[in-house]
Amino acid sequence: TGVPTINILGRDYPTDSYTNITPTIISKLPLQLHRQPGHPICTLRTLIESHFASFSHLSSVSPIVSPYQNFDSLSFPADHPGRSVTDSYYINKDVMLRTHTSAHEVEVFERGEIQWLLTADVYRRDEIDGSHYPVFHQMEGARIVDATESSISEIQEDNERLLRHLERSNIVIEDVPHLTPANPAQPSHNRIHSEAVALNLKLYLNSLLLELFGGSAGATKEDPLRVRWIEAYFPFTSPSYEVEVFFRGKWLEILGCGVVLQSTLDRAKVPNKIGWAFGLGLERIAMILYSIPDIRLFWSSDPRFLSQFKAGEISTFKPYSKYPSCFKDVSFWLPEQAEGDAKMHENDFCDLVRDVAGDLVEDVKVIDKFTHPKTNRDSICYRINYRSMDRSLSNEEVNVLQAEVVSRLKDRFGVEIR
Fold first, then answer.
1. Does the fold of domain 326-417 match that of domain 5-307?
2. To the nearest whole number, what is the mean pLDDT of the chain?
3. According to its UniProt record, what is one Pfam family this protein matches (predicted)?
4. Which of 238, 269, 339, 389 has the fewest Cβ atoms within 10 angstroms?
């Protein structure tokens, strides 16, 4: 047919106007840090799995999904920004890289799993700085039960057991009501069932946070671990919550969760169930627990990084020397747009920089925007901060990278450098 194709994980896919996956991203797909024993991401995964010992543990699911799996099966609105090519990586219009582990909820429930954890690499087009990376690892947890009086009374007994455990523990929880007019039970749910399930979710997660953070924070009776719950909104749960932990003097957002949307369970062909789900980012928690200052470090193969960690142990990262940074600015007129053309997005620029320089870029910032008073043309200036985590970069080496960034900018976007 002559349609250009792209090879991803050993399979050829036709490309089209949606295709925006880059060689840098394709190179990350086989790495799966969550399955590399001794790596902080893998250790954190196994610690959480041991807390949910009776759950199924899934961790080898392909990152290639359909937009239906990633968005529609979870009731994302048609105009949700996550669907756009500026936010997500598309192989073509029918196939993409998952942006969250929830993309697998329907298929896992449909397979008959009723309580499970799923850990996976997820992909989002993003800015470049110390806490954002286009690949990260999430863990999804879910539990569903029959929506019957006897199953709900089992949940209520479970709640009593967990409450007693937490009352004896060094933890202080700032809760919010399980249901409010702004964070309601779903119309098809019995209110008492919904409250029991929401409480079960909160208790499971409070005890997980106590295990993860209580030990590291050295929680005591006098200085207990502090956790707070906040009402939230997600397209695929109601009621929904976010959870924060007070750790080393700051409130840190840890995860989002809620009661699973009935339409998700209906699509999974388990309509008579009710349950909860949560999703957490493993990098965010690992950066906190291990004191890892830069998200790029997780991808380092430097033995000075990897040799610091042992499977099953959380230890404090000891920084090796911080190498000098090298700033380079690039300033250009944004291309004139024909009617209906997509505007060049900041994530397009960041992807181009990543493809040239990979993890040698610490951050990218906009330092100036200007509109010419006569021509109305827009210009923008980005500052690229090159800094290796492993060695000193020479100015000559950085100049070569910067020249390649400029050359690709001109070729790909037809920009005029100022």
1. no
2. 94
3. tRNA-synt_2d
4. 339
**Among candidates 403, 311, 288, which has minimal Cα distance to 357?**
403
Amino acid at 138: Q
Judge whether 194 and 185 are in contact, CB under 8 Å: yes
Task: Assign 219 a pLDDT band (cuts: 50, 70, 90).
Answer: confident
Measured distance CA(389)–CA(294) in Å, rounded: 9
User: What is the CATH class of 326-417?
Assistant: alpha beta
Cα 384 from Cα 360, distance rounded (Å): 10
Strands, E assignment, 2-98 = 5-8, 11-14, 56-58, 64-65, 90-92, 95-97
Cα distance between residue 143 and residue 155, in whole Å = 11
Residue 94 three-state SS: coil
Please provide the DSSP assignment of 116-182 as one string. Answer: EEEEEEEE-----BTTB-SEEEEEEEEEEEESSHHHHHHHHHHHHHHHHHHHTSSEEEE---S-BTT
Residues 314 and 43 sit within 8 Å (Cβ to Cβ): yes
Per-residue pLDDT tens over the stretch 254-272: 999 999 999 999 999 999 9
**DSSP type of residue 324:** P
Query: Tens of pLDDT along 52-82?
Result: 999 999 998 999 999 999 999 998 999 999 9
Angle at Cα 357 formed by Cα 353 and Cα 360, nearest 5°?
Answer: 115
pLDDT higher at 395 or 322: 395
CB 101 within 8 A of CB 118: yes
The CATH number, out of the four listed (3.30.930.10, 3.40.190.10, 3.40.630.20, 3.40.120.10), of the domain defined by the range 5-307? 3.30.930.10
Tell if the pTM clears 0.90, that is, is over it. yes
Give the residue extent of every domain in the chain. Answer: 5-307, 326-417
